[in-house]
Design a protein that fits this description.
The protein has about 775 residues and is mainly β. The chain has 6 helices and 57 strands.
C-alpha cells in the first residue's frame, strides 16, 4: 500500500530541517520554486498556502517516490511543513502510476512499450485503454490524461455522451473524482431556468441526472449569477447556438454514429437502411462494396423522397462522384420535385425542405445524415431512433431492442446479408501486429489532445481511428476518423484547424482555399443571394470571400457567365429576348424594358392568356376569346364558334370589327356579313388572307393578329398598345396572371370552368349590338 502523499513526503524530506525557513513577518509567503524537471502549483485560501509538486512526464522524484506521486508542502504558522525546497526529479522513461481499480499490462515492441489498461469488473477507463511509449524519448501516444498516471478506472459500465450546451449558454464536462460531470452556465443576460441542487449533472448508469436538460432564459439582472469564471474549459461559440437536431454519420466503412450519439463498429459489405422515417416518406439506403477487404472501399447511396429516387455514386469511367436520377447524371445544382441537389466543397449535398432531410456524401466513405426536430421519435435504421436516448438505438426492424451489433445491423439489411461482423483488428499477438498497433497509436493520438476534448468525447473516435489503421495497415486512414471527430467538434461550435503539412493536408485546386468551417451554402455564379436555411460548417476547399463558385473554380462577380435555354454565355454576350436586347453582366442578364407583343393560344382544350396563365377548358358553346374594352377607334370581338354533333365539335371563328362580321367556318368557307368572300380581302379596318394551305390570317389595324388552322389551333397576337384594353378568355393583357379570370360582370371566377361559362357569347353583350 502506497503511503499518503504527505506522509511519504515527510519521509522523503526527513533530512531537511522543518524550520529552516520562517516567515513570521509575512501573512502570505512567497511561492516555492519547482523541483528540477518538475512543476509546482500553489494555492492560498483563508490564510493558508499549499504548494503541490509533480514531476514532468518521464521523471519521478529521486528519493524513491512512486511514479506519478505528488508532494504537498503546507505553510503553517510561518513555516513550510516540509522545508522550503522540493526534491529534484530523475529520469524515469515509460513509467506511469496504475489505476486503483484496474491493472496495466505492458510489453516491448521494438523501441516502444505497448501498454493496455484493464479495469476491474464494474469499472471502465475514463480515457482510452491502450497506450504506446517511445522508450528513447518517454513520449506517450496518446498523451496520458495526467502526467505519469494511467487513466483512472471509474465506476459504471455505461458512459454518457457529453451534454449539449443550452441555447444562449455553455457546457463543460469532465471526470472528477471518478464521476462524469457536466456543468451548465448561461451567457450574460440569461439565467438557468432549472439549476441542479449540486450545481452539475451526473452520469448515472448511462443516463444524465437530473434528466431535465439545462435551459437558459432571459433575465433582467445584467449579472450572471454563476459567472463564467466558475467553469473552465472550452465553451461553444457565443454567437452560434448548438444545433439541437439529429445528426448521424458513418465513416471509414466500419464506423457509425447514431442520431443520439451512439458510436459503434460494423463490418459489412451489404446494403443497409441507414435512415428512414416511420411514414416511409424518406429512406436512405447505404451500399457498401461487396467483397472489399482493404482501404478505399467504394460506397454509394440511394435516397428516396416521396416518389423520387436519387442515387449518389461514383462515375464508373472517371470515378468522380455525382447524383443520378433514372440512370442519368444530373448537372448540379439541380432541383427535383422540391429536393435540392448541389455540390459543396468535396461533398454532394441533398436537401428536402419538406421533411428537413439533409444528406451529404464526400464521394468516398464519409456520409452524414441530418433530420429536423419534427422527426423526434420517428426515425429508424442504422442511424437509430432519434429521441435523445442512445439506449434504444439498437432497435431492430421488428421493434426489438438488442445489444449485439450484428443482430441489429442485419435486421436493417436490404436483401439477404450474412457477411456482417463486429470485431477488433488491433492486436498484440505477433510482432507485426504490435508494429501496426504502435503505428495506430502514434497516428491517432492527436484526436485525444485538442481543446475539443472538453466538449466532444474523443475516445470513441480514437478507437475508430486505431481500428482503421490496424485493419488497413495504412496510417493514412487516420484522416477519416479525425475528419469525423473534428466535424462533430465544429457542429458543437469548437473549430479546430487540425490539418497541416504531414497530417492529412489538403491541396486545393485552382484558386480555392481550405477552410475548416466553410459555408454549407456557398455563393455561386447562378445563385449569389446566399439564401441558406441550414447554414453550418463544411470542411474543405471553398472560394475566398468576394468570389463565386463556378465549374469547380472561383471567379469574381464580373467574370460570372450567364445562362439562357441551358446554354452558357460569357460576360458581355448579347442576346435578343422578344423585343428586348440583353447583355450578360455579373452573372445576370441586363435587358431593356420594352413592352413586347403577347400571344394568346387556344389549342384544343388548352388555353394560354396574354399574360401567360395556362388552363384547360372544354366547352360546347360559343365563347368570347378577345374583345376590345373602353373607347377605341376600332372596336373588335373574336369569338370561338363550336358546331357540335353528338360528342364531336368542329371549330370556327367569328370576328367582328366596327360592326362588320367575318366568319371562318369549320368547312373552310369564309363569309363577310353572311356572304361568301374570296381571299385575300381587306378594308379600312382589317384584312383577311390565307397564308398557307390550311392557315388563315386576320389582321385588325388596331394591333391584333389572328391565326387559325381551320380546326383546333388559334393564335391571337396583340401589340403593346392594347395593354389593359382587352377582355375575354385571353385575359386583360396587364402583365398580371392573378386577374386573368375576371368576368364580364367585373368579378373574378374561382376556376377555369366558371370563367369559361361567364365568357359564353350568349351571356355577353355583342359589339354588333352596340
Amino acid at each position: 500500500m502506497a503511503l499518503s502523499a504527505i506522509t511519504l513526503s515527510l519521509l522523503l524530506l526527513s533530512g531537511a530541517a522543518p524550520h529552516s525557513a520562517a516567515y513570521n513577518d509575512y501573512h502570505v509567503p512567497p511561492n516555492l520554486d519547482p523541483p528540477a524537471n518538475g512543476e509546482v502549483e500553489c494555492t492560498s485560501a483563508n490564510g493558508t498556502t499549499i504548494c503541490t509538486a509533480k514531476c514532468k512526464s518521464g521523471f519521478t522524484f529521486k528519493s524513491g517516490a512512486s511514479v506519478g506521486e505528488a508532494i504537498v508542502n503546507e505553510f503553517i504558522d510561518g513555516f513550510w511543513s516540509l522545508g522550503s525546497r522540493f526534491p529534484s526529479c530523475k529520469r524515469s522513461l515509460c513509467e506511469a502510476r496504475h489505476p486503483l481499480q484496474g491493472s496495466v499490462d505492458c510489453e516491448k515492441a521494438g523501441g516502444n512499450l505497448l501498454c493496455s489498461v484493464t479495469c476491474n469488473a464494474g469499472f471502465r477507463t475514463e480515457h482510452t485503454h491502450m497506450y504506446m511509449c517511445n522508450m528513447d524519448t518517454g513520449e506517450w501516444c496518446p498523451s496520458l490524461p495526467e502526467i505519469n498516471r494511467f487513466p483512472q478506472c471509474i465506476f459504471g459500465e455505461k458512459s454518457c455522451n457529453n451534454l449539449d450546451a443550452p441555447i444562449n449558454g455553455y457546457i463543460n464536462c469532465d471526470v472528477i473524482n471518478g464521476e462524469h460531470r457536466c456543468t451548465a452556465t448561461c451567457k450574460l443576460g440569461y439565467v438557468l431556468m432549472n439549476p441542479t441542487a449540486v450545481g452539475y449533472y451526473t452520469c448515472t448508469v448511462g443516463m444524465w441526472m437530473p434528466n431535465d436538460k439545462p435551459r437558459c432564459v432571459s433575465t433582467d439582472d445584467p449579472i450572471d449569477p454563476v459567472g463564467l469564471a466558475a467553469v473552465t474549459g472550452i465553451y461553444t461559440r457565443e454567437d452560434v447556438p448548438i444545433e439541437q437536431t439529429g445528426y448521424c454519420m458513418s465513416w471509414g466503412q466500419h464506423h457509425y454514429r447514431t442520431f443520439d450519439g451512439k458510436i459503434f463498429r460494423l463490418q459489412g459489405d451489404c446494403s443497409y437502411i441507414l435512415a428512414q422515417d416511420t411514414d416511409h416518406f424518406f429512406t436512405v439506403h447505404l451500399h457498401n462494396e461487396h467483397g472489399c477487404k482493404g482501404d478505399g472501399c467504394k460506397r454509394s447511396l440511394s435516397i428516396f423522397v416521396g416518389d423520387l429516387q436519387i442515387d449518389l455514386k461514383s462515375d464508373y469511367i472517371d470515378g468522380t462522384p455525382g447524383a443520378y436520377v433514372d440512370g442519368s447524371k444530373l448537372a448540379v445544382p439541380a432541383s427535383m420535385s422540391g429536393v435540392l441537389i448541389q455540390r459543396v466543397a468535396d461533398f454532394i449535398v441533398v436537401r428536402d425542405p419538406e421533411s428537413e432531410l439533409y444528406v451529404k456524401w464526400d464521394g468516398l466513405e464519409s456520409i452524414f445524415v441530418r433530420v429536423g426536430e419534427d422527426q423526434m421519435g420517428r426515425t429508424k435504421g442504422l442511424c437509430g431512433t432519434y429521441d435523445e436516448n442512445h439506449q434504444n438505438d439498437f432497435t431492430t426492424k421488428d421493434g426489438r431492442i438488442v445489444t449485439h451489433v450484428v443482430e441489429f445491423a442485419e435486421s436493417w439489411s436490404v436483401g439477404d446479408c450474412h457477411n456482417t461482423e463486429s470485431k477488433t483488428y488491433c492486436s498484440k499477438a505477433t510482432p507485426g501486429d504490435k508494429k501496426i498497433l504502435g503505428k495506430a497509436l502514434q497516428g491517432c493520438k492527436y484526436i485525444m489532445e485538442t481543446k475539443c476534448r472538453y466538449v466532444v468525447n474523443p475516445a470513441p473516435y480514437f478507437e475508430a481511428c486505431k481500428e482503421d489503421v490496424c485493419w488497413s495497415g495504412n496510417d493514412d486512414t487516420v484522416c477519416k476518423s479525425m475528419s469525423a471527430y473534428f466535424r462533430e467538434c465544429s457542429r458543437h461550435g469548437v473549430v479546430v484547424d487540425w490539418r497541416e503539412e504531414g497530417r492529412c493536408a489538403i491541396n486545393c485546386p485552382d484558386n480555392l482555399c481550405y477552410d475548416a468551417c466553410g459555408s454549407s451554402c456557398p455563393k455561386t455564379c447562378y445563385d449569389t443571394s446566399y439564401n441558406c436555411e441550414n447554414d453550418h460548417c463544411i470542411e474543405g476547399c471553398h472560394c475566398p470571400d468576394g468570389q463565386y463558385l463556378h465549374n469547380g473554380t472561383c471567379v469574381s462577380r464580373y467574370e460570372c457567365p450567364c445562362q439562357y435555354a441551358r446554354q452558357e454565355y460569357s460576360p458581355g454576350s448579347k442576346i435578343r429576348l422578344d423585343c428586348n436586347r440583353c447583355v450578360c453582366a455579373r452573372g445576370r442578364w441586363v435587358c431593356t424594358k420594352n413592352v413586347c407583343d403577347s400571344v394568346c393560344k387556344a389549342v384544343g382544350n388548352h388555353f394560354t392568356t396574354f399574360d401567360g396563365k395556362n388552363f384547360d377548358f372544354e366547352g360546347r358553346c360559343n365563347y368570347i376569346l378577345a374583345r376590345s374594352e373602353g373607347m377605341q377607334d376600332i372596336a373588335f370581338e373574336v369569338q370561338l364558334i363550336n358546331t357540335c354533333t353528338g360528342f364531336h365539335c368542329d371549330r370556327g371563328l367569328k370576328i367582328t370589327v366596327n360592326g362588320e362580321r367575318a366568319e371562318i367556318l369549320h368547312n373552310g368557307n369564309v363569309e363577310l356579313n353572311g356572304k361568301d368572300v374570296i381571299l385575300p380581302h381587306h378594308n379600312y379596318f382589317f384584312a383577311m388572307e390565307k397564308v398557307t394551305t390550311n392557315l388563315f390570317k386576320v389582321t385588325i389595324n388596331s394591333g391584333l393578329t389572328i391565326l387559325f388552322d381551320g380546326k383546333d389551333r388559334i393564335y391571337i397576337r396583340s401589340k403593346p398598345d392594347l395593354c389593359s384594353r382587352v377582355a375575354g378568355m385571353c385575359g386583360n393583357f396587364n402583365a398580371l396572371t392573378t386577374d386573368d379570370f375576371r368576368t364580364p360582370k367585373g368579378d373574378t371566377a374561382a376556376n377555369a370552368n366558371d370563367f369559361g361559362d361567364e365568357c359564353m357569347a350568349s351571356l355577353t353583350r355583342h359589339i354588333s349590338d352596340l
